[in-house]
Design a protein that fits this description.
18% strand, globular, 2 domains, six-stranded mixed β-sheet, 6 strands, Protein-Tyrosine Phosphatase, Chain A, alpha/beta
């Protein structure tokens, strides 16, 4: 059992642990716990490693459609990050939650690439990072992120905001564009 867990990337183990109700954990037998962690392999679009190209790693976190789930992704990913987000403008619900990301953006994020309008991100993070750009398509976003990245940078697609397109569709689009590089 432990060999399976050890082979998992740290972010998948954290996600698995977060999904286990601690009160039920005491009642589980080890084969049930092992099955839970094996299911983590099947999780798609949640801190899913896509590829490493010329020293740049690409991570699909399309399932993170709120600032708090994106906070977890940014907290989990180690090193410098180029963050691809869904664009947002004006007064959106939970806009104040984006402010909770400020410290992570200041310390980790080297660039924010917005799929669409960047107003919210410029307002919230413009004083801690000047490198905020807009992209019109996923291909454009992936290209801008890749060509702006240094070796050992992580390109994280973690939308942080609903945009009307399913996370599955956006995640598959992200992976397809990464594989086209």
């Amino acid at each position: 059992m432990y060999e399976t867990i050890v082979k998992q990337p740290q972010e998948k183990v954290h996600t698995g642990l977060a999904g286990i109700d601690s009160s039920k954990l005491k009642k589980l037998r080890s084969e049930h716990l092992k099955a839970c962690f094996n299911l983590i392999d099947e999780m798609r679009h949640k801190l899913e490693f896509v590829a490493r190209i010329k020293g740049v790693s690409f991570i699909d976190d399309a399932a993170s459609r709120s600032p708090m789930s994106t906070w977890y992704a940014l907290e989990t990913v180690e090193g410098k990050v180029v963050w691809i987000v869904n664009g947002a403008h004006g007064s959106i619900p939970r806009a104040s939650e984006f402010k909770r990301l400020r410290t992570l953006v200041e310390n980790k994020v080297t660039m924010i690439v917005c799929l669409g309008d960047s107003e919210l991100y410029r307002t919230t993070f413009g004083d801690v990072t000047k490198n905020i750009v807009e992209a019109t398509t996923m291909a454009d976003a992936v290209s801008k992120a890749f060509y702006s990245s240094e070796e050992n940078t992580k390109v994280l697609f973690s939308p942080a905001y609903e945009n009307g397109i399913s996370y599955e569709e956006q995640g598959e689009s992200f992976k397809r564009e990464v594989n086209e590089l």
